[in-house]
Amino acid sequence: MGLSPSARRGLVTACVREYRKWMRGFAGESHLDVWYDRLIASELVERFGGRLGDKGRILFTKPLARGRRKTSVRVVTKLTETVDGELRFRHVPPLLVPMRAMTDVAHGQEEAEFVRDVISEYTESLDDERRYLFASYRFVDLARKVVGVGSVGTRAIICLLVGRDGRDPLVLQAKEAQASVLEPYFAPSQYENHGERVVRGQRISHAAVDIFLSWQRSTGFDGNEHDFYVRQLWDWKASIDLSTMTEWGSHSYTRACGWSLARAHARSGDRLAIAAYLGKSPAFEEAVAPFARTYADQNERDHERLLDAVADGMGPVLNGA
């Protein structure tokens, strides 16, 4: 965004201050009040958009409006085509590769058994009412999909199902869940399936979760077992392009993130202990701000080293991946 060092420090400080302030607020609330506390999209602007002008408020709410349009119907429009009268995922390698195009997959009966096992394992992990709803759908196609930066290198598949008369589409995404990076330093997870660990954590910390959020374990095409957590690919999920934001837009957005993280920690952790640790003074945010600057500088140096390595031919690069 090209912001000055003082502006960057101000954004980080405001975000962490919001977190500290709300942790103290949540510490004074009852368990039920914390559990029920949430903000709808319009309230985000009212609470955190005080320094935004009319244009800024419109830009701030635009991604939220776009998120409401991100449904399975839109996924189908973007990612599928009709083959012999039936919806099928497009073949757009390397970003999207349908199961029929995976050369390492056994076809025919083995392929059908693999799909049946995946669906069965997932169905068993759903609550009864969700299982009843899921039974209304019929499996159509499966594909491997490249995921975002945070999950690159892990397995991700998407599953296309349809309702009555081949309509009413549902697109589920299964993302691989591996052991937590904290496990080497703490006790192993209490859950045998890492997908279940992720799902349980989301159900505790999130104000609202996908109705189809659950987990499964399946034997992959490599012959090894892998854990996954499953959810709808698009379910009113919204994201904001930070590069297009003004300084005050980022100020509002990061404060909203601070509140959201505080509410999640208040539900999933010991809010009294966290609030006591953060204290009443600005010492915590004043310590985090220089850490964030140092961390960002290290990211830039790491990226420069990566570009140098690519230029020197030390590793393959796949355009578009």
Explain the overall architecture.
- The protein has helices spanning 5-27, 31-36, 41-48, 54-68, 72-79, 109-124, 128-134, 194-205, 247-268, 271-278, 283-311; strands at residues 80-83, 86-89, 96-98, 138-145, 156-162, 170-176, 214-219, 225-232.
- The protein has 321 residues and is of the alpha+beta class.
- The chain has a six-stranded antiparallel β-sheet. The chain has a two-stranded antiparallel sheet with strand order 1-2.
- Helix 1 (5-27) packs across helix 10, helix 1 (5-27) crosses helix 11 and helix 3 packs across helix 9.
- The two termini are 24 Å apart.
- The model has no long low-confidence stretch (mean pLDDT 84).
What are the key terms here?
single chain; 321 residues; alpha+beta; 2 domains; six-stranded antiparallel beta sheet; 8 strands; globular
What share of residues are in beta strands? 5-15%
Oligomer designation: single chain
Q: Helix count, per DSSP?
A: 11
Shape annotation: globular
Overall mean pLDDT stands at: 84
* Main sheet overview: 6 strands, antiparallel
> Radius of gyration, Cα only, in angstroms?
22 Å
Question: How many strand elements?
Answer: 8
Query: How are the strands of the biggest sheet laid out side by side?
Result: 3-4-5-6-8-7
Question: How many angstroms does the end-to-end distance come to?
Answer: 24 Å
List the helices and strands and how they pair.
Layout: H1 5-27, H2 31-36, H3 41-48, H4 54-68, H5 72-79, E1 80-83, E2 86-89, E3 96-98, H6 109-124, H7 128-134, E4 138-145, E5 156-162, E6 170-176, H8 194-205, E7 214-219, E8 225-232, H9 247-268, H10 271-278, H11 283-311
Antiparallel strand pairs: 1-2, 3-4, 4-5, 5-6, 6-8, 7-8
